[in-house]
Design a protein that fits this description.
By secondary structure, the protein is an alpha/beta fold. Helix content is about 45%, strand content about 20%. α8 (about 235-260) runs parallel beside α9 (about 275-285). The structure holds 5'-O-[(R)-(carboxyoxy)(hydroxy)phosphoryl]adenosine and zinc ion.
């Protein structure tokens, strides 16, 4: 079964064709990063307008690259939330128009479930159950994937997402947007023990995260230095901040996996590209006799292939959407409307 999928929930305009949920035939991604960079973050209205102008071309490119026509496609998958509502609606109305005109099924996909499904593309043999750490610009969740359709959220951030903290700290350090890759790179030349930023573990028996206190601690450190006219080493700040985030993510994920007796861990979302996270989670998992999976960086950040994979599992489990499918900015994991 070949699914043409569309992802426009934020600032990537992406179209993919995925076969049987596991094989990528094409995965075209147009990133608007250059456009939003000068504002230091994504401007929703600008994102929507660029989706409108770029999406038809990206669809053509995807068909051309896979040497398929719309007639060869069996269904249309589309992200319907969570995300920026205007941006979501561009992808949704396009998907609906294609599905309606071809008389083919329309399948709504939850963006976070899509991020998790990126692991199915990377590891064709991977099957649930497994525990996933989903860390992106908008989300930090620990999700137990019981089967292809059953997601249990065991922990979540109570304030900022991990990626949001990376983006904010990068901005104040003048390292640019998006912040994750910039901090990751700066940290390679910094000392992670230079500044003792707090590790916010909250209740040790629960698996929720909190990053706003750490963000404030970094801002206070920078303000204090400025008031005393002292120099700041941005690489040391980046490395110390990154270590504080990653240590907490690793401790919580491993503790959560242990508490439910789960030996398979996956990671998903943009922050799972982080080199320190990959290294430290890999070591911790090995020490505990657990297996760690994570997709290639191109499948960690927003892309339509992950949406095509999840759409397949929704469809074969009897889920088809109708033309009333709406864009829901705060869509809860495991729900469709
Ligand atoms: O999954 P994603 O593309 O979009 C959302 O659904 O939010 O994630 C984007 C986030 C941004 O906050 C970006 O700074 C972060 O992922 N990110 C990273 C790295 N690469 C991207 N964070 C830390 N280290 C990285 N190497
Ligand atoms: Zn995302």
């Amino acid at each position: 079964m070949k699914i043409l999928s569309i992802e426009t929930s934020c600032d990537e305009t992406s179209v993919a064709i995925v076969e049987d949920g596991r094989k990528i035939l094409t995965n075209r991604i147009y990133s608007q990063i250059d456009i939003h960079q000068k504002y230091g973050g994504v401007v929703p209205e600008i994102a929507s307008r660029n989706h409108v102008t770029k999406l038809p071309y990206i669809i053509d490119e995807a068909l051309e690259e896979s040497q398929l026509t719309l007639a060869d496609v069996d269904a249309i998958g589309v992200t319907n939330g969570p995300g920026l509502v205007g941006a979501l609606l561009i992808g949704l109305s396009t998907a609906k128009a294609i599905a309606y005109s071809l008389g083919k099924p329309l399948i709504g996909v939850h963006h976070i479930e899509g991020h998790i499904a990126a692991n199915f593309l990377q590891y064709p043999e991977l099957e649930p159950p497994f525990l996933t750490l989903v860390v992106s610009g908008g989300h930090s969740h620990l999700v137990l994937v019981e089967d292809y359709q059953t997601f249990k959220v065991l922990g979540r951030t109570i304030d900022d997402a991990a990626g949001e903290a990376f983006d904010k700290i990068s901005r104040v350090l003048g390292l640019g947007y998006p912040g994750g890759p910039a901090i990751d790179a700066a940290a390679q030349n910094g000392n992670p023990d230079a500044i003792p930023f707090p590790r916010v573990l909250l209740d040790k028996t629960k698996y929720d995260f909190s990053f706003s206190g750490l963000k404030s601690a970094v801002l206070n450190y920078l303000n204090g230095k400025k008031m005393k006219n002292e120099d700041v080493n941005p690489n040391d700040v980046a490395a110390s901040f990154q270590m504080a985030v990653i240590e907490v993510l690793v401790i919580k994920t491993i503790a959560c996996a242990k508490s439910i007796g789960m030996k398979t861990i996956c990671m998903a979302g943009g922050v799972s590209c982080n080199s320190l996270l990959r290294q430290m989670m890999g070591k911790a998992a090995t020490d505990e006799g657990m297996t760690l999976h994570y997709p290639d960086p191109i499948l960690c950040t927003d892309n339509a292939a992950m949406i095509g994979s999840m759409a397949y599992y929704n469809y074969i489990n009897g889920e088809e959407s109708d033309l009333s499918l709406n864009g829901i900015p705060g869509l809860k994991i495991g729900t469709r409307q």
